[in-house]
Amino acid sequence: MAFVHWPTTDPITHPLEPIEVEDLVNIEANHIQPADGWLGGTFASYHAYPYYPDFQRFEPGIVDFAYNGQVDPFAGYLTQLRDHHSQMPVMITEFGVPSGHAHAHYGPLGRNQGGHDEATQMAMNAEMMTMISDLGLSGGYLFAWVDEWFKLTWNTMDFEAPAERRPLWMNAWTNEAHFGLMAAEPGDSQAVVIDGSDAEWADNGSQVVYEGDGPIQLVRAYKDEGWLYLMVRTDSADRFLARSVTVGFDVIDGGGGTLPTGEPDEVSDYAVTVSDGEATLMAAGHADPYRRLYGLGLDLIPVNPTNLLDGAGSWQPQTLIVNRPYEDPVTGRSLPAESMVPGELVRGVTDRSNPAFDSRASWQIADNILEIRLPWQGVGFSDPSSRTAYVVTDSGAVETVAVERVGINIGTDGQLLSTNGYSWDPWQSVTWRQVPKQGLEQVTDAANATLVQGWSR
Questions:
Q1: Within this chain, do residues 229 and 312 fall inside the same structural domain, yes or no?
Q2: Which of 81, 86, 110, 254 has the fewest Cβ atoms surrounding its Cβ within 10 A?
Q3: What are the two backbone dihedrals, phi and then psi, of residue 289, each rounded to the nearest 5 degrees?
Q4: For 59-72, what is each residue's pLDDT tens digit?
Q5: Co-location of 332 and 398 in the same domain
């Protein structure tokens, strides 16, 4: 029997923790001992993760701790816990890192709070499992069995509303939703495989939103609980390489004035540009959640308010904050807010049987075909199941509006093509499938190895 706590309430003093409240309270498991009649004993139980709190970045004895021939702060912290509770077993009753397309905090050695492809996630989890055994702790519980769409995290929750509908869709940018050993993927089957082929699109229930005989010949759209998908067929392969294609999305009132590539467009709020082997999901200033909330609203990042006006023509890649400004506890310097850019889309393949599979893949081109999947938050939706979008006001308040149809415009060669746009019926229940994540065998091998070693301390 034990009580659960985590680094914020551990009994060890961390004077170099930048956020004072994260080391304000100490709860001492050593002070709680079983009575003579309780034969089961007790143990120290910690939820410990390698990316938070930030004392793991600064504290001597942790930041310079050597494990298996390299510096490893997480191993240093686990060793502190083990040594502090030398008279009782120590269990790490939660540990792990999530996969996903974005993260919520940087961790030492790249063990960030999300943003990993599945194989990397599994490798890091296996490494930490082995570490817990090697260091002589009494056991560990890897979190978690399956991805959980209902979970929330601090840097996306403001844009997920109504909150009670969060279980009805998957936010690829919410790290807490992607801790599983098993992926909870939208749909009872994979209706769209991102691989640059349009073979499945004629029969997958998608809508034709544009047909023409010019540079853009066909555009189809499809949705599921996790993604807005597009297939674009052009007149030649070089349009995605030597030239460019930009798709703009009109979701809320207002517009960027132009697309990021300069084509005149008075209505688009978000856009994805594809050129020269790169794809970027962008937000116009009037719709940009990062600059408007954390700049205009909370004054945590520098912004030019003029660039955030309707029609200003100012576009930036979709960005997430991952740390508020803080003071370096070693040097005393003021450090700016930290961020990551999920708008820099990963090119790859989502066919799990393909050696090129990457769970973070968002787009692919082959010859004159573009396939792309965009996360709902990235194109402005706070709840696609009820066709609700978020709006960040000039004061930084996050409000919601109903959306009947997403307008879709396409820019190429300086010209703008308007399509029929895309709409869908709201949904009240979900379809999903449970799939073992790539690299899962790394975790099972590590677990088996600890059993062979006799993990019984």
A1: yes
A2: 86
A3: -65, -30
A4: 999 999 999 999 99
A5: yes
